[in-house]
Amino acid sequence: MFFKKKKPTLYAVANGEFIPLEEVQDEVFSSKMVGEGFAIGQHNGEIVAPIDGEITNIFPTKHAITITTDQGASVLIHMGIDTVNLKGEGFELFVSENEYVQKGDRLAKMDNQLLTERGKDTTVITVVPEIKSVKIVNSKKMVTSKDKILVVEK
Fold first, then answer.
1. DSSP E strand boundaries for the chain
2. How many whole angstroms separate alpha carbon 27 and alpha carbon 69?
3. Which residues make beta-bridge pairs with 118?
4. How would CATH label the architecture of 9-152?
5. CA dihedral 128, 31, 48, 131 (to 10 degrees)
6. Matching PROSITE patterns, A to Z (predicted)?
7. Could you give the residue numbers annotated as active site?
8. Number of Cβ atoms within 10 Å of the Cβ of 22
9. In angstroms, how far is the first alpha carbon of the chain from the final one?
């Protein structure tokens, strides 16, 4: 008897408004060049792990974190739009590379007020690069970090 591998399921990375990836105000993400996923807007800046896995990359500018799941899928959490040029200002990290996190663990805090003052969009984008077969399972406009959002089908 063969056991099916559990499909990676992503939860919301913040409590806020669910935004379909196609509606994100960044063409690189909305066109799905980077991968399939979703976004969260109107949040309080508290960013949590959407899935269990290892922190395999933190951008030097602190605005993006990659988690590699137990199933081997990479998950990119991109905090804000056009925030790379802030060079880390407005982001506080609570994790390090090679650290193992569990769903719901605190990853980062965004200073939404500072980002807004600098003219940056605070939307948090979560994508699964290199995966094209996903299913959005969320049906709510406002979500919490306890809400399932996406299941990787392949």
1. 9-11, 16-20, 36-41, 46-48, 53-58, 64-69, 74-81, 91-93, 100-101, 106-110, 121-128, 134-136, 142-143, 148-152
2. 26
3. none
4. Distorted Sandwich (2.70)
5. -10
6. PTS_EIIA_TYPE_1, PTS_EIIA_TYPE_1_HIS
7. 78
8. 11
9. 21
Question: What is the per-residue pLDDT across 69-115, written as a single tens digit (0 to 9) for each?
Answer: 988 899 999 999 999 999 999 999 999 999 999 999 999 999 999 99
In this structure, which amino acid lies at residue 141?
A: K
Q: Tell me the C-alpha to C-alpha distance, in Å, between residue 63 and each of 66, 134, 152.
A: 11, 24, 24
DSSP 87-110: TTTTEEE---TT-EE-TT-EEEEE
pTM across the whole model: 0.94
* Cβ-based burial of 32 (10 A; exposed 0-12, middle 13-18, buried ≥19): middle
The residues pairing with 36 across neighbouring beta strands, listed in sequence order, are: 128
Distance between CA 56 and CA 67 in Å, rounded?
6
**Per-domain residue ranges for the chain?**
9-152
